[in-house]
Amino acid sequence: MKMNKAYSVTQVNEYISKKLRDDYNLRNIPIEGEISGFGKSGPHYYFTVKDAGSMLKCAIWASNAANIDMKLLENGKKVILLGDISPYAKGGSYSFSVRYVEAVGEGDLMAEYNRVKKLLEDEGLFDTRHKKPIPEFPLRVGIVTSSTGAAIEDIKKIITAKNNLTDILIFPTQVQGIGAPGSICENIVLANNLNKNGLRIDTLIVGRGGGSAEDLMAFNDENVARTIFASEIPVISAVGHESDVSISDFVADARAETPTAAADMAVMNTFELRDFIEDAKYQLIESVKLKIQSERNLLDTRSRLVCSYMRNKLNDAGNSIDKAVITLKENDPRNILGKGYSALFDSDGNVIKSVDDVKIDDNVVIRMHDGTLKAIVSDIERN
User: Fold this and answer.
1) How far apart are alpha carbons 33 and 56 in whole angstroms?
2) Which residues of the chain have pLDDT under 50?
3) Nearest to 162 by CA among 154, 171, 151
4) What is d(CA 254, CA 234) in angstroms, rounded to the nearest whole number?
5) How far apart are CA 95 and CA 58, in angstroms?
6) End-to-end alpha-carbon separation of the chain, Å?
7) Which of 65, 94, 262, 284 is 20 to 30 A from 136 via CA?
8) pTM listed for this prediction
9) What is the predicted pLDDT for the residue at 2?
10) CA distances from 310 to 300, 306, 315 (A)
11) How many CA atoms are closer than 13 Å to the CA of 38, on its beta-carbon side?
């Protein structure tokens, strides 16, 4: 079959774009739907509006933003949008250019979120008294998330960069879609059973990377929240980006703004700890050295003082002995006898101190410095 001349992609896209722009039925259209994936890029705002059967990409250009109440634009809210279909020929796509927003009511996702939140909050599942502390030195961290997403790679990268002691145990989990809540619950229960049966798991990280409100909805599921609350292993909830808040965050023992932040929260930096220990060890050794030197100096000083004290004492004792020797010499009876004195003893050798100690005709001994004399008492005269 011979084909006619082919059109370029650009020609086709430009033709479709012109048709969309020229169709007055696609201008000033009021559209009702639920907001999802609201965000900002530069001065412009982007989101999706959806219903049960379909979704439409929307944009609020900076030129229109000043005329719109941005408080109405929250994920999960139902709104009426007024605007035009805006084709983008180069990308072969189109979006809805919003010029006016009017609130309708709470969307289905937001309504379910608020129902579960209020129910669990009323039951006390958010109370801080139930929060378990996150271990500072975990030997093993369990991760309940998709095994193929960016989140698991970020978590592994952070943990291994900070810590060379903690093991990582991954529980491959479906984190979005119809089966996601059941998969999350099943793996949290599995982790707890393994922990009870000898495979120690100190901390669980439960979460996923960023996404739309629909993508994150599994972590707002009531059963998931109750399973996290019932976990005996401390749980860090790490769902989406910093601005995303899920029911899991409220019931978990700790909330991390992102999976990367959860990994950082879960483990100690062992390399910094090792450096700290080495520094502390060095400081301790230096402190002990200084203490030993100080005590040695103190001991030397005290030794010198004791020696000086003992020398003084010995000198004093020597002086006392010298004085005693002099005194003894001065009081030695022999020295006294040498001066012309004598000592008188009875026949039994007892010193006679008084005339009352003798009688007439008693034998006495007179001791002098160079000998003794024996005599008989012939007369007694009293003073």
Assistant:
1) 9
2) none
3) 154
4) 8
5) 5
6) 180
7) 284
8) 0.58
9) 64
10) 15, 6, 8
11) 17
